[in-house]
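Worked example 3 (structure in, sequence out).
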């Protein structure tokens, strides 16, 4: 199998993917906390890790892709209370809305989408074990993780003890032993809450994810753990610390983090209103364009959204679509089957080099140039056209760029035959009229 190298945030090196089980790859991507509509920045991991999943599947790996829904959180409790509904109803509503966006950008729904509410027994048992092992302590119904017990703490965010202590919030520090200790369990008296031996409450976010990984994967760890760059610390650092405490091993072989999204060179921010909701962007420009913009930049580099970027992406995408559709129609007129695929080394090599979708798209445009050249040739080389068509089709499938081409009906074929006949007898009035009809049907682009 082709070797794949991915940048590991833990080692800060590109590492060869070496799955726990040969031929199988397990991927866990932290999903959204479902209390509102997501913005375009939240769609970046949805697109990036979907391409990773599609690419590894294409190479022949049996990929298991899991992404959770955090359906217990203070923000959910507050919002449900505001809207006079239950946390479950609110979560279900925003999960449905989120999945509409996931599909609109052409991403596959994960194989498993665990929810916190479905893993409460394991979460309580997990915390109980950490308490028994001395990795956690209870303070008045809250349970905290004893960070000092994990000597490697800071290994993922690459911060030392002093930096971590200085950066730790002292706010809400109710009897913590050290400021960087984090909550595994929070005592609550309002909203959704669960019973436990340490009192009624709800779990902390970092504990939810690590337990869902434990429960969902046979080896209690994954080959690849992904998420936005902002999750590296504290979320992933704390997931890893708990896992080391529980299993005395790492949680993931490779930790991948995608970069942010900027709007007109500024960070998106809810407080300044400089934010674009995914559903609004998709309604205006379409999900495929959003996907294209996100893939045109390497996933670890920030993506900047502005008018110029959008216009260029729209033009580039239209260039791809026009050549792809023209080739598909021409080939159907030759009566050849469009079922097939074809790999090119340069394209696969780009994706094997830390999922470089920007370089992969450059390869797409090279093939599009070839396609256009072949389409202009007279007589046209059908075999060459078919090869290039299979190449571009394979590339678009791996990148998840969903560009449809029409399937010719008998009626369409008759029209094309009339068109050819009119041209052959040099009846340009008739051929122009038929050409107009073919254009209206989207068959001449
Ligand atoms: Zn997580």
């Amino acid at each position: 199998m082709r070797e794949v190298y991915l940048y590991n945030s833990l080692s800060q090196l590109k590492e060869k993917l070496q799955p726990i089980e040969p031929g199988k790859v397990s991927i866990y991507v932290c999903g959204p906390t479902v209390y509102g509509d997501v913005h375009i920045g939240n769609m970046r991991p949805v697109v990036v890790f979907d391409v990773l999943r599609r690419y590894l599947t294409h190479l022949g790996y049996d990929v298991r892709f899991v992404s959770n829904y955090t359906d217990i959180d203070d923000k959910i409790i507050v919002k449900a209370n505001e809207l006079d509904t239950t946390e479950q109803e609110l979560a279900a509503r925003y999960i449905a809305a989120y999945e509409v966006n996931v599909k609109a950008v052409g991403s596959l729904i994960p194989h498993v989408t665990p929810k916190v509410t479905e893993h409460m027994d394991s979460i309580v048992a997990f915390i109980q074990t950490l308490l028994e092992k001395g990795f956690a302590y209870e303070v008045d119904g809250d349970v905290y993780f004893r960070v000092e017990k994990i000597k490697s703490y800071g290994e993922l965010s690459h911060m030392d003890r002093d930096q971590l202590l200085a950066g730790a919030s002292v706010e809400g520090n109710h009897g913590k032993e050290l400021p960087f200790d984090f909550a595994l369990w929070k005592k609550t008296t309002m909203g959704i809450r669960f019973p436990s031996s340490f009192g009624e409450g709800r779990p902390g976010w970092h504990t939810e994810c690590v337990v869902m990984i434990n429960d969902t994967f046979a080896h209690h760890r994954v080959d690849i753990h992904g998420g936005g760059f902002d999750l590296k610390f504290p979320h992933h650092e704390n997931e890893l610390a708990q896992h080391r405490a529980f299993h005395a091993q790492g949680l993931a072989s490779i930790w991948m983090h995608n970069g942010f999204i900027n709007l007109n060179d500024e960070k998106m921010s809810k407080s300044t209103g400089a934010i674009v909701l995914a559903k609004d962007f998709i309604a205006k420009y379409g999900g495929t364009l959003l996907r294209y913009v996100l893939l045109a930049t390497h996933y670890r580099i920030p993506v900047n959204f502005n008018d110029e970027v959008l216009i260029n992406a729209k033009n580039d995408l239209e260039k791809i679509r026009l050549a792809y559709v023209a080739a598909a129609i021409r080939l159907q007129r030759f009566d050849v089957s469009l079922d097939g695929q074809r790999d090119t080394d340069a394209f696969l090599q780009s994706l094997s080099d830390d999922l470089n979708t920007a370089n992969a798209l450059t390869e797409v445009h090279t093939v599009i140039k070839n396609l256009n050249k072949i389409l202009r040739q007279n007589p046209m080389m059908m075999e060459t056209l078919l090869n290039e068509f299979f190449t571009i089709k394979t590339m678009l499938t791996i990148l998840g760029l969903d560009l449809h081409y029409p399937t010719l009906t008998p009626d369409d074929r008759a029209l094309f035959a009339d068109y050819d006949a009119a041209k052959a007898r040099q009846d340009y009035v008739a051929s122009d009229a038929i050409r107009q009809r073919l254009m209206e049907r989207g068959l001449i682009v």
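Notes: The chain has a mean pLDDT of 95. The pocket of zinc ion is lined by residues 30, 209, 235 (CB under 6 Å).
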